[in-house]
Amino acid sequence: MDLFEDDKSNKKEHQSSSGNQPLATRMRPRSLAEFAGQDHLVGEGNMLNRMIRSGVIGSLIFYGPPSSGKTTLAHVISREIDARFEVINAVLDGIKELRKVVGKAEHQQKANGRKTILFVDEIHRWNKAQQDALLPHLESGVLTLVGATTENPFYSLVSPLLSRCQLFELYPLTTDHVKEMLKLAVMDKERGLGFLNLDVTEEAIDHLADYAGGDIRNAMNALEVAALSTPKSADGTVKITLEIARQSIQKRSVRYDRGGDEHYHYASAFIKSMRGSDVDASLYWMNAMLEGGEDPNFIFRRLLIFASEDVGMADPYALTVIHSAHEAFLKTGMPEGFYFLAHAAIFLALSPKSNSTKAIFEVNSEIKKKGAGEVPSHLRDKTANKLAAMYLDSKNASDDYKYPHDFSGHWTEQEYLPENLKGRRWYNSGTEGREPKLFERLEEIKKRSRGKK
């Protein structure tokens, strides 16, 4: 059976079979005309619209957040293109199921020349070997792939597969799109809730669409709960008010996936807001991550890195402040932990900034390219130098080492780098906070010491 086949259309079968399916599944658009959102792809004259209407498509990858319409687009393609459709869920199925599909596709191609389109949902769940198994069949033309993923395909899919597919990015549905679909569900007697004689206020629709955060499944589920749990009025209608809508969807949906793109986008916005010294934006993005279920310890990890990477020597004590805030969080937990998270984020956003600690990466690059130089003899271990001098009857190289504490300002002119790197500098002092004062102090000591020679 084609997994994209229509549900039965009469009311009795609607209530007995498809009625067991969630409202969001029953109301899934069956054609481009019913499809909401993604106008940049399926709008009149746009690429995917033209491909579907022409009946000729190549291999495609749809990527975007959950509930943005990836599977629905595959559903629409299955109806509007004269081809066999096979479905694999990458969470449940693997190469064994793929081989079965390929066998059927080869038989159909030989028997009647009919094309087979394979829809792979959650394709990012397949490992490299499983993704590679698709390649020869796409190359030979036995299969045309339509893949769906919630993750960035450039990170989650292998390059050979990407090179054989056209990529289409889907965006989150807007509130207006969600409202449009909710109203259709209220009116539709065949697949929706129209048989219940619903009377849904505009405020209730607005609330459900707003709180769903672009997730049509969430909004549909809430509408269905409200419709099925609300008793009929005396006039036989089921009235869904704003209050009932509030009870049906009590927590606002935050589009955030701890393992997906949104995780990195939100974290990036958080870090860049602190780097830009925008306290309000820093708190906003941090809260967005927390509301989406992010582990607070991940946020503290990013804060600790920021304390050295972006505040650094402008306020050397930033690292201590963040570490202390994290320790306090671990001892108290939530919700009081919000104070320590806020304390840390506000402190870093307001702190002077310096990225001079990046000098370590320039030094690291130098050593990786040329290797570590030889340690100057006067800097070597004094015990080893003493023994070498004793056995070789030579001068003790440690005698040439100048002990800084014996000199004014606890500094004296001395070379510490290998011979071939004399005078080389990687560190550049920042200009904000404590760092220039620390650097100026050292420069003044050097100046005084040199003047006494």
Structure report:
- The chain folds into four domains: about 35-170, P-loop containing nucleotide triphosphate hydrolases (Rossmann fold); about 175-250, Helicase, Ruva Protein, domain 3; about 260-350, Zinc Finger, Delta Prime, domain 3 (Up-down Bundle), CATH 1.20.272.10; about 375-450, post-AAA+ oligomerization domain-like (Orthogonal Bundle), CATH 1.10.3710.
- The protein is elongated, with a radius of gyration of 33 Å.
- The protein is an alpha/beta fold and about 450 residues long.
- The chain is built from 22 helices and seven strands.
- Helices cover about 50% and strands about 5% of the residues.
- The chain has helices spanning about 10-15, 25, 40, 45-55, 70-80, 95-110, 130, 135-140, 155, 160-165, 175-185, 200-210, 215-230, 240-250, 260-275, 280-290, 295-310, 320-330, 335-350, 360-370, 380-390, 435-450; strands at about 60-65, 85-90, 115-120, 145-150, 165-170, 200, 240.
- α11 (about 175-185) packs parallel to α13, α13 packs across α14 (about 240-250) and α17 runs parallel beside α19 (about 335-350).
- α6 links the parallel β2 (about 85-90) and β3.
